[in-house]
């Protein structure tokens, strides 16, 4: 099987899975308990927190564990709104955010908050000038996805960070779920206040997320209860999952440059191949993320293409795993002014470090066969 759906989820590193199993067998105590089993579990929790913090070059006190990227985005956005509502009710985001962000914003609009959705150009990028003009005295949050999950566009995080240096009271939140292999280029900016990651996007377990919360920045808790995670995120910590996440993040960051170069070579090989076809349209820009390539074959719906490749043991997806079963028009492509007759045909390839050039060549061979087949059908 050829797996080209890494943006939906990645396989767990065997080493991370081994850690998950061993920790759940040997460190099963509740880290909030006073007895020695609880102490052992808490020690491992804090070791994992420190490892993640060191990898991100931040303080362990700034790292919080959640159930995933969706919870992290919800927490930062709604927590900011609750904490800062006395100072303003205006939030800014883009028109191509993950639903964890866009639907959180829509909920807040129903509660009386006002949201500005920045438009994007045909490459899926916001304008920093548009952002500058959108900022108001009552703006409390700017929330942007670092790497778009549908087309791979990389937002100008550094430039936004520079702009927001002049607005220190505005929270700056970055959804970095798809951005681990792009880390050095876009994420290490000191103006970022909140950063959200999800373990299963970098070969860790499902159900574990990371939120970086800069020291001194306050948001209201989303979950109330026993006061875990320094009172910021109540719920008994998933020690096995957190330890496995720390290991997976370390391995991913250690391998990211080699992985990125491999993904880039595969993406560009397939991209060059697809550019030969006049009835194929590419939606991912060359300057976008190395691991994502979105395209459409004219007249062939995305779900049809997905199942056609699946019959050849090649796994791809429509533009977003979160909405693929709902038959929705891809929000990102709509915002990029892609006509619906093209966007409904869009599919996404997303690569990982385990993919090979031989798999890319196999993909092109199958595409040739399918292209011929679908052309005959359409005629």
From TrEMBL:
InterPro entries, A to Z: Aminotrans_V_dom, Aminotrans_V_PyrdxlP_BS, Cysteine_dSase, PyrdxlP-dep_Trfase, PyrdxlP-dep_Trfase_major, PyrdxlP-dep_Trfase_small
Entry cofactors: pyridoxal 5'-phosphate
Keywords on record: Iron, Iron-sulfur, Metal-binding, Pyridoxal phosphate
Domain of life: Bacteria
Gene3D superfamilies: 1.10.260.50, Aspartate Aminotransferase, domain 1, Type I PLP-dependent aspartate aminotransferase-like (Major domain)
Iron found in the keyword field: yes
SUPFAM superfamilies in the cross-refs: PLP-dependent transferases
Molecular function GO terms recorded: catalytic activity; iron-sulfur cluster binding; metal ion binding
Domain Aminotransferase class V: residue ranges: 2-363
Family: Belongs to the class-V pyridoxal-phosphate-dependent aminotransferase family. NifS/IscS subfamily.
Protein name: Cysteine desulfurase
Organism of provenance: Jeotgalibaca ciconiae
Upper lineage: Bacteria, Bacillati, Bacillota, Bacilli, Lactobacillales
């Amino acid at each position: 099987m050829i797996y080209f759906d890494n943006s939906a989820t990645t396989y767990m590193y065997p080493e991370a899975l081994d850690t998950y199993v061993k920790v759940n067998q040997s460190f099963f105590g509740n880290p909030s308990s006073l007895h020695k089993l609880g102490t052992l579990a808490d020690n491992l929790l804090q070791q994992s927190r420190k490892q993640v913090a060191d990898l991100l070059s931040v303080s362990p006190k700034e790292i919080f564990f959640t159930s995933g990227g969706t919870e992290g985005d919800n927490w930062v956005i709604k927590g900011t709104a609750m904490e800062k509502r006395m100072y303003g009710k205006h939030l800014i985001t883009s028109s191509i955010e993950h639903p964890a962000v866009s639907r959180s914003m829509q909920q807040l609009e129903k509660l009386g908050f006002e949201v500005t959705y920045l438009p994007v150009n045909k490459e899926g990028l916001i304008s920093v000038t548009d952002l500058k003009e959108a900022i108001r005295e009552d703006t409390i949050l700017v929330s942007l996805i670092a790497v778009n999950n549908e087309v791979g566009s990389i937002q100008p995080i550094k430039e936004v960070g520079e702009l927001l240096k002049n607005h220190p009271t505005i929270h700056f939140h970055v959804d970095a779920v798809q951005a681990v292999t792009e880390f050095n280029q876009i994420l290490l900016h000191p103006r970022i206040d909140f950063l959200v990651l999800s373990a299963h996007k970098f070969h860790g377990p499902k159900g574990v997320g990371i939120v970086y919360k800069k020291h001194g920045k306050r948001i209201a808790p989303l979950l109330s209860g026993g006061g875990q995670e320094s009172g910021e995120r109540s719920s008994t910590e998933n020690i096995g999952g957190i330890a496995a996440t720390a290991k997976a993040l370390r391995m991913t960051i250690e391998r990211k440059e080699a992985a990125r170069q491999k993904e880039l070579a595969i993406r560009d090989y397939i991209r060059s191949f697809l550019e030969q076809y006049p009835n194929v349209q590419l939606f991912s820009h060359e300057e976008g993320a190395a691991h994502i390539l979105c395209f459409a074959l004219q007249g062939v719906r995305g779900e049809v293409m997905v199942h056609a490749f699946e019959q050849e043991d090649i796994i791809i997806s429509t533009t977003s795993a979160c909405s693929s079963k709902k038959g929705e028009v891809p929000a990102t492509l709509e915002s990029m002014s892609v006509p619906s007759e093209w966007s409904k045909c869009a599919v996404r390839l997303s690569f990982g470090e385990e993919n090979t050039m031989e798999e890319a060549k196999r993909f092109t061979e199958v595409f040739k066969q399918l292209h011929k087949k679908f052309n005959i059908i359409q005629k």
